[in-house]
Amino acid sequence: MIGEFHHSLDVKGRVNFPAKLREELGERFYITKGLDGCLFVYSEAEWDKLAQRIRNQPISKKRRELQRFFFGSAVEAEPDKQGRVNIPGPLRDFAGLDKEVVVVGSMDWAEIWDKARWKAQEAELEEETIAGNLDDFDF
Question: The whole model's pTM is what?
Answer without folding.
Answer: 0.90
